[in-house]
Amino acid sequence: MFHWSHGKASQTSSSLTAVTMPEDAGVKSVALSAYRCDWMQHAIDRLGHLCRLRRGWDGHNGLPANKSTALFASSVIGSLMLPNIPAPSIMPLSYGGIQVEWHRNGWDIEIEIAGPNQVFVYTRELTSGIEQEFSGGANLSRLRQIIDLIKT
Amino acid sequence: MTRPSDLPDFGSPPLNEVAISVQFDKLDQFRIVHAGPLWDRFRNEGDKVEYLPPIQPVFETFGVQRPGLQQIQLQFADGPELPRMWFVRQNASDLIQFQTDRFVHNWRKAGTGIDYPRYEKIRASFIDELQILETFVSDNELGAIRPNQCELTYVNVIKPTNGENVLTFAPPSSVVDVGDLEDCSVTLRYQMIGRDGMQIGRVVAQTMPLFDVNGERALQLSITGRGPPAEPTINSVMDFMDAARMAVVKTFARVTSIDMHKIWGRST
Predict the structure, then answer these.
(1) B77 in contact with A, Cβ within 8 Å
(2) Which of B31, B55, B73, B236 is deepest in the core (most CB within 10 A)?
(3) Cα torsion B135, B137, B143, B146: sign
(4) pTM of the full predicted structure?
C-alpha cells in the first residue's frame, strides 16, 4: 500500500520516497538550459508586462493580454527559439491577444496569438511583395520553416 | 463506452493512480468566495477539502525539432494566486481537483484489496463532474470552460518479486572498474499520432526508483498522454482522452517485459 501527499504541484498525488526526483508526470515548470537565447528573459518579462496593462491602454477599450494566451505564447516562442533567431517584437492586441513580429532579412513575419492553440501567421517578402497567410494550432512545423528565413 | 478489442488487457495491473485532467482558459472571474459554493456542488457525506499550490499550465507544441526542453514558466506578479482545491471522497480513492484553469479526477489505490475500477468508470465520473463544473460556472456567470489541453496519466508501482526484468530496456548493471548501478531514472517521449497521421499529442513515460512505506525498493512507471483537444469542447476533450488511453496502455505494454505481463495477467 502506498500513501499520497501533496508537497509538490503535480496533478498526481502519489508521494513515495523517491531515490531521485525527475520531472513530475504532471505539469512541468521548466527552465531553459542549453539553448537559452539572450532575449528570452526579456520576452518573458514583456509577456508578463502585457498581462498587467491597464484596461484602455490603447486610448480606447484595450484589454490587457489574456493570461492563458500569454502562457501559450511563451510556449510557442520557447519552441521556436534558437540561438540564431533574433529577438522578436511582442505587442499587445486590443482584444487581449498577442502579436509576435520579426522584420528582418527582407521579410515581415507576424504571428497573431489569439488564444491557446489559436495561431495566425502573416508573411510578406519585401522584394517580391508576395504575401501568405495561414492559421494553426499546436503544430508549429510550418511556422518553424518560416522562422528559418530570418536566422542570423 | 466499450473497451477497444485491440487494447492490451491486464487482469491485475500494477496501477497505483490514474489522473484524468483538462486544462482550460483561466476563469478570471472566479474568486475565493466561489470556492465554498463550488464545494457544495460536489460534496457528499464524509468528504474532505484541502488546499494546495496551483499546478502551472503547460502547452504541448509539435512540429519543431526541439533541441531540449523549451517550456518556459511565466510568472504573474499581480497578486496572490487562488489555491488548487482537493475534494477528497470519503473512500479516499477518488479525488477531484479544481483550480481556475484546470480540473482533474484522480483514482488512487487507497489500500490493499482495492481493484482498479477501469478507465471507462473513471471517464464517466470525470464527465459527470465536469458537467457539474460547467453548470456552476454558467450559473455564476464566471465565463465558460474553454479547454485548451488534455492529459491522462497512469502511475504504476512495480515490485518484482523474483528478480524479473520489469522493462524491455535496461542500463548496464555495473561498469568494470567503477561499480554497480545504484539507481536509474529514464524519460521517454513518443509522438502521439491521430487517425489522420498527424501528431495530436505526446506520450511521456518516466521511470523512477523509489521506496514504499515499508522501505522496500520499487519502480514507479508513470505514463502520460497530453495534447490539445481538436476543438475547445468537452466532446473533443473526451476524444483526446480515449486516444490517450490507447496510447498510454500500448506504451505500457511495449516498455514492460513479457515476464511481468504474465504476473499481471495479460489476456490480449
Answers:
(1) yes
(2) B55
(3) negative
(4) 0.86
CB B202 within 8 A of CB B194: no
Which amino acid type is present at position B147?
Answer: P
Residues 6+ apart with CB under 8 A from B142: B27, B29, B30, B34, B136
Nearest CA in chain B to A82: B67
In tens, the pLDDT along B148-177 reads 999 999 999 998 777 778 999 888 989 999
The H or E element containing residue A102 is strand A98-104
Does the distance separating the beta carbons of A11 and B220 come in below 8 Å? Answer: no
The ipTM estimated for the assembled molecules is 0.80
Q: What residue type is assigned to position B176 of the chain? A: V
- Measured between CA atoms, the residue of chain A closest to residue B104 is A11
Q: Dig out the grid coordinates for B224 from the structure.
A: 502520460
- Tell me which residue has cell 533541441: B67
pLDDT in tens, B37-91: 999 999 999 899 999 999 988 899 888 766 444 556 666 656 678 999 999 999 8
